Amino acid sequence: MEVVEIHNYPELMDQCCDLINMEWPRNKTARYEQQFRFAVKETDENANKLRTLEMSRDELPTCLVLVLSHEVLGHSKISPIPSIPSGCFIESVVIHPDYRGKGLGKFIMARTEDYVRSRGIQTAYLSTIDKQEFYRKLGYTECEPVQIYGGPVARKLNAELESLNKINKTNDSKEVHLPLASSVSTVTMSPPPPPLPPSPANTAAVVSRSTKVYMKKDL
Ligand SMILES: CC(C)(COP(=O)(O)OP(=O)(O)OC[C@H]1O[C@@H](n2cnc3c(N)ncnc32)[C@H](O)[C@@H]1OP(=O)(O)O)[C@@H](O)C(=O)NCCC(=O)NCCS
């Protein structure tokens, strides 16, 4: 059993795609792809997943796969954090459903950390909705949200939110939380419009945003 960089084993990409699909079907996988700023259309969704894996390289972002006898049993992805050069962001950690609970999640995380440590990275960050216990056992502790995107779009959003903040400072203000890139930013604005009527989709969005936890580990 070994953990390898997917870009050195392109023949494993289809299998890896299937594994990611199994855990994060269409809508969630689309979110994964948007981290790379691809426009996701239903028709070319699978091509985009492959493209995401094809972006893997020695310097981050890197996708690692856990392989046993040419079978992909796990995946993790390591991305750089432009605002924290000594840190990295670990995401899309997944073990094949048939192989969970056997220590493989711990194993791929250990190898992922070795990989980033060998590149001089000192702190690993991640976010999770419901796997805090798993990561806690591996030494991760809760931390403030980190902004993992530092490109022009994120900077423009930041600037716009800052100017909104200034404009609304004099208004009858109420603190609200807006999603910014992949982190959460606090700005001051006028009161929001009344909430939408409850629906399963709305409820899921609210729950997932409000329960996302950031964690970190010094390596
Ligand atoms: C989370 C995941 C990667 C864990 O992989 P795994 O191979 O089942 O985990 P391991 O067997 O290596 O478990 C390591 C330790 O974490 C614990 N653990 C694993 N999953 C856990 C969970 N959901 N809640 C609490 N503890 C958990 C195990 O009991 C074990 O504890 P121990 O060392 O005291 O025996 C796997 O369940 C998975 O792929 N889940 C779906 C995808 C996902 O949610 N990924 C995380 C995205 S943030």
TrEMBL record:
Segments forming domain N-acetyltransferase: 4-160
Alphabetized Gene3D superfamilies for the sequence: 3.40.630.30
PROSITE patterns, per database record: GNAT
Region feature Disordered, mapped onto this chain: 184-203
Signal peptide extent: none
InterPro entries: Acyl_CoA_acyltransferase (IPR016181), GNAT_dom (IPR000182), NAA80 (IPR039840)
Compositionally biased intervals (Pro residues): 190-200
UniProt-listed CDD domains: NAT_SF
PANTHER family per the UniProt record, alphabetical: N-ACETYLTRANSFERASE 6, N-ALPHA-ACETYLTRANSFERASE 80
This protein's name: N-acetyltransferase domain-containing protein
Species name: Periplaneta americana
